[in-house]
Amino acid sequence: MKSTPSKFGKTPHQPSLWTRADALKVHADDPTTTQPLVSANFPVLSDEVFIWDTMPLRDIDGNITSVDGWSVIFTLTADRHPNDPQYLDQNGNYDVIRDWNDRHGRAKMYYWFSRTGKDWKLGGRVMAEGVSPTVREWAGTPILLNEQGEVDLYYTAVTPGATIVKVRGRVVTTEHGVSLVSFEKVKPLFEADGKMYQTEAQNAFWGFRDPWPFRDPKDGKLYMLFEGNVAGERGSHKVGKAEIGDVPPGYEDVGNSRFQTACVGIAVARDEDGDDWEMLPPLLTAVGVNDQTERPHFVFQDGKYYLFTISHTFTYADGVTGPDGVYGFVADSLFGPYVPLNGSGLVLGNPSSQPFQTYSHCVMPNGLVTSFIDSVPTDDTGTQIRIGGTEAPTVGIKIKGQQTFVVAEYDYGYIPPMLDVTLK
Ligand code: FRU
């Protein structure tokens, strides 16, 4: 891969590769890496809105943070349309599946608050209509900056284009609840450059989104992870020996896997406020393996860098497959080399009997994994489903060296704080 020169002089690292050989080790239904079955009897957060990607308020080091005893989460959110003629089927019944599948086009950032780390109450929209420059407000990360309650919300402004942006506002608490105020000025940060990260012009199905800023516990600098695809015209990527890895005889054929080009991107801040960023070459690439490594995030534990990212069955390349869920990689230093956790990368996947039960997992530093319910079968054949659009039961995992284990299950949407900040 070519990369642009950085202000650090030579490129600081080579991307680590998630290879086809690694992915051949992915196995659905291993109980240590499979999310417990979600019952079709789940409660919903709201009959008015669907929610999916959930972004807990945290500090720049990754700790889930409450303010004055209030937990706060941000969610991608879209109205439900049970009475809209546009979403009625031929028999006049609400076509909830179509409504749900259309949600990405009208995604908006909402927030919720809670005293218990669950039983979330709807706060409302983070930005008023017209503040965000594009139609879609896609995933990102809210960071509590200080005891004055200032919050930087990094997110993705999508359609037209896809720009990593941030908006600064404030969290205000009373004994009755939480409001987010003054999220009024959105600042564009950067877009894909076509040299390291694929642009829309290079591939209409490009991905460039999901910022996750953090401070490196070792060098103390401000960085940001994001989802990307490796730069280059669609179809031009090479799946060579390095991308294939050490496969058994008979597994050399890569089919059309050159179309799958996901990567985990990284940028470094040139300033302490995180207003000025420089993209660096990807930390991890999945060329020939998978087309999406979404919502990348870290857990820093035992002096190691645990890099997590969510991915889908449908985005895997020819000849490799795995469940929808969260995958992980570990390194001793920020720039790698990263090796797949559990040999394969799979950390927590959906069971094959309920392949779409949950998605958009976020592994928190306390080992709790939050996700949302997508759809759960309501009959044995799996033809009838119930749409979620709500928080899934939280799962506990244990991270040990290069392995992870599912060890616990908690209540729906349980996201307890790891520390509390008293506002001044
Ligand atoms: C993950 C995701 C994110 C994106 C959002 C769009 O569920 O695909 O990558 O920001 O959902 O709705």
UniProtKB/TrEMBL annotation:
The gene is lsc. CDD domains: GH68 (cd08997). This is levansucrase. The keyword Iron does not apply. Keywords: Calcium, Carbohydrate metabolism, Glycosyltransferase, Metal-binding, Transferase. Its cofactor is Ca(2+). Substrate binds at residues 52, 139, 215-216, 292-294. One of its GO terms (biological process) is carbohydrate utilization. The active site is at 53 (nucleophile), 294 (proton donor/acceptor). It is an enzyme of class 2 (transferase). Its EC number is 2.4.1.10. Belongs to the glycosyl hydrolase 68 family. Transmembrane segments: none annotated. Ca(2+) binds at residues 210, 291. The record marks 210 as: Transition state stabilizer. InterPro entries: Glyco_hydro_68 (IPR003469), Glyco_hydro_beta-prop_sf (IPR023296). Pfam families: Glyco_hydro_68.
